[in-house]
Each structure stands twice: as structure tokens, then as C-alpha cells.
Amino acid sequence: MANKKIPMRQCVGCREMKAKKEMIRVIKTVSEDETKTNITLDTTGRKNGRGAYICRSSGCLDTAIKNKGLERSFKMPIPKEVYELLKKEMEELETR
Known about the structure:
By secondary structure, the protein is of the alpha+beta class. Helix content is 32%, strand content 27%. The chain is built from 3 helices and 5 strands; from the N terminus they run βββββααα. The chain has a 3-stranded antiparallel beta sheet with strand order 4-3-5. Strands 1-2 form a two-stranded antiparallel ribbon. A hairpin with a 6-residue loop joins strand 1 (8-10) and strand 2 (17-19). Helix 1 runs antiparallel to helix 3 (80-95). The model has no long low-confidence stretch (mean pLDDT 90).
């Protein structure tokens, strides 16, 4: 029997390749009238939108903020408020 291929993704923080299931997806969605973009964590990995992957640690999120990994992935500047929301969501995930 053939081995099943494991999908791999690169973390925008530490830049390591890991299994897709081990990572959290950050998505950028655009509203219907295309005037507002939202950036949130997608814990299910199934929501619509442009995605970037990050390890399940706040250290990788801090590194991604410092080296502007998310800004490069989404090809747009990201406001500080969005980073603060992402940090809060990441802390909630780590405490579960």
C-alpha cells in the first residue's frame, strides 16, 4: 500500500516546513463591497480567503510581526490593532 502524502506548509514566523495539521492558518478576507479587509485566525483551516500559516506558538507570531512575514504573504500593510487581536487569539489557543 502506498504511503499517503502529508501536506507541508511554511511558517511565516520561523520559516520552517511543518505538517499542515500542526499549524494555524491566518486568513485575509475581503468584504462583499471590497472596502474592508479582515485578518483573523482560522482554527478549522476551512474558511474562505487568502491564507498564511504560522506555528502554534506566540514566539512565531512575534517573529512574523518583527520580520513582516504576514505583510509579505498578504501583500498589504497590516495595522497594529490587527496584530494585537491576533496575539489575543493566539494566547487563548495556547491556554486551551
